[in-house]
Each structure stands twice: as structure tokens, then as C-alpha cells.
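TA notes. Do not distribute before section.
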Amino acid sequence: MSISCIILAGGLSRRMGTDKRRLRLWGDGGPMLLEHAVIRAARISDDIVVALNDPEAWSGLPARLVHDEVEQSGPLAGLAAGLAVCRREYALTLACDLPLVQDALIDALLAYPRPYDALAPIRPDGGARAPRNPQAVEPLLAIYRRTCLAAIRDCLQRGARALVEPLEMVDARYLAPEVWRQYDPHGVSFINVNNPEDAERVRQIIAGGLNH
């Protein structure tokens, strides 16, 4: 296993109204959302780092827990904290609130020819995230080289919070929709669980048999 895995789990869950990391979308007997992300990461890495604001609340997770590098700075601070301690040159980054990331898409990202500093897919919703992210890059499902750490810390020092900003400062490559749809035809890998409606949508998808 030649890659680390960084799970970003520092969100405040404002729109959910409860700690979404503890949601059990696979039923009462299933894993919590964050547990599920760690289980998924173990398939491809023996070096799993979880970046979050309350590591003391998750001491039972089979992963190394690190505190976000800068308080109240969003996932960029979590990415910095993870890259600072990962043991491999490259790290796959997963947001814990992307529960339906397809194994085939992860494998395609891992197989993409290196070297590069970062590799991220283009989301299926086009420019819906403009103006901060006009290319609709998905930086929460991406591979980062440790060389990205300097650019990320530079952004944090300047008060920049958008994950896409350091991508403009490094050698970044992008996986176009016509490429990744070979591995995820329905684009379910990009469904974020941000509110109760999202959670219910994911539950219905899982119940319909479309999972990994």
C-alpha cells in the first residue's frame, strides 16, 4: 500500500442540525459516517489519518487522529494537518460526508500516471460552484502530494480558505467527467451529506442497491 489516506472530518454540521459524522445511513446496526470512511480507506491504505477538531471524541477509531492545523479554517486546515504527518509521498483525501464514493473511481485515481502534485475530478454539476470554483473541481475527493503542503500553508497564512486555491499554485491534473463516468456513471461519488434531505437521499440510494 503505497499511498496514505486523509479523511477530512472537521465540519460543524450547521445545516444538519446534529453531528453528521455520527449518522448511520446503513441502518441502526451499520457504521457511523466517519467510521464508514475509515473502513473504506483501509481498503487502499495502511496509513490512515483523520483530521478533525475533536480527536478526543473519537479515540476508538482505527486511525491516527490529528487536530486541524488552524482553528476555524475549514477543510484546508485539515488537509494541512494530514499532509504534515502522512507517511507516504501521496495521500488520497476523502471527506467523511461523501459516503457513496465508488471503489472503481478511487482505483482510477490511484492508477493515474504520476508524478503530479495534485489530481482531482471535475464535478458533474459544471460551474455550479462559481465564482470560487468555476471549474467545479472536487478537492474533497483528490490525491495530494506532500509537496502541496507549502502552498496550502501559504493560503492559510493569507486567510484563504477555498480548497481549490492551492491547486492553482501546484502542478494539478484533473479528471474530466467523460473519464470518471466510466467508473461512476451516476455520479453518486459527489453527493455530499450536508442536511437531512441529503441524508435521506443517500439512504434511498443505499436501499436501492447502489452503494460502492
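Switch to the second chain here.
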Amino acid sequence: MSETIPTSPARPAGGPVFRTATLADVPALVGLVESAYRGDASRAGWTTEADLLEGQRTDADGVAEVIGHADGVLLLAERDGELVACCQLEHRGDRAYFGMFSVRPGLQGGGIGRAVLAEAERLAGEEWGVDELEMSVIEQRADLIAWYERRGFRRTGVFTPFPYGDERFGIPLRSDLRFEKLTKVLKQA
């Protein structure tokens, strides 16, 4: 499905250019996601999970699986040919799942994240015709949840457990981690 997803034809001044990821992008995407969330490099931005989790956030197999998903797309944002951000969209009937959202740490806070989210909402709403975007966020990430709330997402109070014992998702530094589902209505009835 990713081959047929159109990307935004317009580019605001200094804004990113969007395209669909290919398998050739996997190494760069793994590096981007890891740098945005884990280790000392992630501390240059504000989306770090380094105080909650150690280890990996993703790996090449996980990224390749997202790229190859029949009902999804891994959207890349580039500026001057350089990968600066990405997000996953998965079409789930009248909803779309939004995940793997990553912005290069040194560029966080400069509007790229807002541009990527807006493009994801446009693609999901206009191209796929979905009514709602949904995501899962670690409940302890109050700053990140607040950022999403300012962009129209709402907390649902629906929680799922963190996959303790599965190091593909990281090594928890605390025992109370869980995910909360956030949703945003894209179309008004």
C-alpha cells in the first residue's frame, strides 16, 4: 500500500518534504528513532525516554516490518535531502494508528513535529478517509501527553501494559510503566 500513498505537494518555506519510506531507508530510520528516544543523544531533545528505559527503541527488523505493512506507511520528513523526522500510519478501518513518531533531537521544538503530525492527519483524513487518529503513549510521559493534548488529542483512560521482559521494546528502569491510548477526531459528523 505504501507505494500508492501520495505525499503533500506543497512545502512551506523551510518546511520538510514528505515521502514514503523504502527498505533502503531502514538504517537511517533506526538511527533517527534511537536518537530521539534512547541514550545520551536523545537528551538533546525533549522526547527522550532515557530516564524510563534503556536499550533499544526499535531495530531494523521492526522498521522493515512497518515499511512492509500492507495497510500502512512509514512517512519520512526530509529537509535539504536529510532525514529529520518520521511517523508510522496504519489504516485500521475508520481509524488510523499513529506511531514511531521521531524528530531529530537537535531540531525538536522547531515546528518539524507539528508539520509531520499535520501531514499524517491530512493523509489519514483526506487520503484514507478515516475519522480518528489513535496512538499509545507511556503514561509517565506527562510532557509528551500534554503536547498531544494541545494538538487536539484526548486521553481515553484506556491502558495497556508495558511489555516487560521483551527487550525489543527496551529495558524498563521502573516497574510501573504502561501505555495510555490517545485519540483525535479528524472529521466532524
